[in-house]
Amino acid sequence: MTKERLSPTQEADWLRAAIARHDHLYYVQARPEISDSEYDDLFRRLRTLEAEHPELADPSSPTQRIGDALTAGFATVRHPFPLISLDNSYDEADIRAFHKRVADGLEGRSVSYICELKFDGVAVILKYVGGRFVQGATRGDGEQGDDVTLNLRTIRTLPLRVVPARTAAIDPIFYVRGEVYLNKHDFSRYNAERDAVGEKPFANPRNFAAGSLKILDPRVVAQRPLSIVCYGYDNQQPAVDDTHWRSMQRLGSLGFPVSEHVCRVDSIDAVISYWRDWQERRDELPFEIDGVVVKVDRYVDQRTLGSTARAPRWAIAYKFAARRAQTRLIEISLQVGRTGVLTPVAELDPVPLGGVTIRRATLHNFEEIQRLDVRIGDVVTLERGGDVIPKITGVELSERKPQAQPYRIPESCPSCGARLVRDEGMVGVRCPNPSDPEIVKRRIEHFASRGAMDIAGLGSETVNVLVDRGLVADLGDLYGLKPESLLELEGFAEKSAVALVAGIDRSRDRSLPRLVFGLGIRFVGEETARMLATRLGSLDRIAAATEAELTEIPEVGPRVAQAIREYFDSATSRAVLRKLHQAGVAGKSADAVAVSDHLAGKSFVLTGGLSTMTREAAEAAVIAAGGKTSSSVSKKTSYVVAGESPGSKLAKARELGVTVLSEAEFVALLSGE
Ligand code: IVH
């Protein structure tokens, strides 16, 4: 059959079916069969045909996805039957109790369960008449919801028309329940764009989906990357299927987007494994889920079990530990970091979240407070993502107290009262007083940390006590500590006092890069410290280098050079350095190496053991030749040096096509051959 011989009606039908099929292949199955331009041709032809033959107008045509009717508000839809929700369970005991109720209700007959993901979106009900999508509504209160047909039509994965050839076995009128949601990466992309144009980002994908469905102009909704997933017929189960499993398969074959993670199991233990598995793996999914849903498979069993007014007895939501919670912001406190930068911290009404009680959450910086417009006394939304650190993602404006005032950035330091400064081009607000006790404490803590001088037993608690009791006023004082004076402090016994002094003592021999990093010079991280140490060789030479000399070193820009000079020029630092010098802390230099620039711009990753030098020596040699070292392989890596028994970095290098050097080749390259 060629298109040319078709009547306009037949051709329109043909085009609509073809477009629906290609939409499904593209949006649901992600395996398109035709190019975008071929698709556009089909679409354009249909549009022309409909324009030429107004009698062909059909609201289920793909050309009608983006209607241009701007509604004044949404009509209320009274649902034909109550849209009940699900009861929740949170742990194994709950789910076993559910199973017991089911087993009792079915008088011990064997039961199969369908396990599904619980999508975290907005519930909708879709009505199909004669295979056409005629109405879609939000669940609302279960009795009535909003008519959001036009907005739902814009979602490309929603079938507007169920292909007639396959509808033989469906009812003339049927309802499908589903969830409108948003993929996580679409969410971040959309939010980033909003942020860039100064609009307030959405707190989470669920709010985004809910907010989008409430937009009155479908053209705007069409711009939003919404998705929908269907999880079952409602109420009027098609007579042809006798299990939920079969009808899910049917929905899929009719072109409805259904989850690929639906699973049929025969025991409650298997249900628990499914739950446990997804609780672990939820971050692998491109969308958010907040648990799993368990449903009795056979419809006859579902009918036997029946429902309460609220929820079916044949299904239950088995939730994950919450990652989102709401609580009240009691106060915003300020933390002073080692560089003096102030970090605002939210003090919260304690709330359980993901298995722990949250009392505080970082607000990162003052921009963040302004962006969220969070005010003291507000009810805020807290989220814990894949990482464990909770963050505040939104404010419940409806609960804001009328007297709540916008947050004002403080002008003086909460710890020492100094007037705060804001450096040009930097987000942070900073206390400029180097003797501020908080800054001193954090600097000492940094000095003692693993990557720096690595002083065992000198954690933040101990540092706080030492500074508060006046035993230490700066880093230099550490080396003058005596076990006797520590013994007077709370929490110190003879053994721990001796151990701490011994630990401090041992740190005198740490290498120059560690010492330079430990000083806590602004912008000087481990990498830059190593670079400075290798290129200049001693602390005295680093201290004496001019800004011009410093900027000649790879990785040291004008901003870093200036910060280094500022550090060595300040009276406070000079006093510290003098004390360190007197205590014999100078930073052990690696053997003097010839400095050149022949590896400038080249980055190296070392893997496996080298036979002619230590790892540290190899790194120093790369830096001395103007190159850089890194611990992970990326496309930007110039060379991977593979020594004895190399690790996975070698495989990664091969995968990315990065040049791999043997030890001999590496040595040759270092010596400039
Ligand atoms: S079945 C009568 N299946 O969770 C049973 N619901 O907390 C109807 N949800 O209102 C619901 N994923 O919005 C079902 N696979 C799934 C689901 C799911 C998400 C939502 C739905 C429901 C809510 C109940």
Protein topology:
Elements: H1 8-28, H2 36-52, E1 76-78, E2 88-89, H3 92-105, E3 113-119, E4 122-129, E5 132-138, E6 144-146, H4 149-153, E7 173-182, H5 184-196, H6 205-213, H7 218-222, E8 226-233, H8 244-253, E9 263-265, H9 268-281, E10 289-296, H10 299-305, E11 315-319, E12 324-336, E13 342-353, E14 356-362, H11 366-372, E15 379-383, E16 391-395, E17 421-422, E18 429-430, H12 437-448, H13 460-468, H14 483-487, H15 494-506, H16 512-518, H17 526-536, H18 539-544, H19 547-551, H20 558-569, H21 571-582, E19 603-607, H22 615-624, E20 628-630, E21 639-642, H23 648-656, E22 659-661, H24 663-670
Bound molecules: 2-(butylsulfanyl)adenosine (IVH).
Describe this structure in words.
- This protein has 673 residues and is α+β, with helices and mostly antiparallel strands.
- The protein contains 24 helices and 22 strands.
- It has a five-stranded mixed β-sheet with strand order 2-11-10-3-9. The protein has a five-stranded antiparallel β-sheet with strand order 14-13-12-15-16.
- Strand 19, helix 22 (615-624) and strand 20 (628-630) form a beta-alpha-beta unit.
- The longest helix is centred in the first third of the chain and has 21 residues, at 8-28.
- The model has no long low-confidence stretch (mean pLDDT 89).
- Bound molecules: 2-(butylsulfanyl)adenosine.
- 2-(butylsulfanyl)adenosine binds at residues 84-86, 116, 118-119, 123, 139, 177, 179, 231, 293, 312, 315, 317.
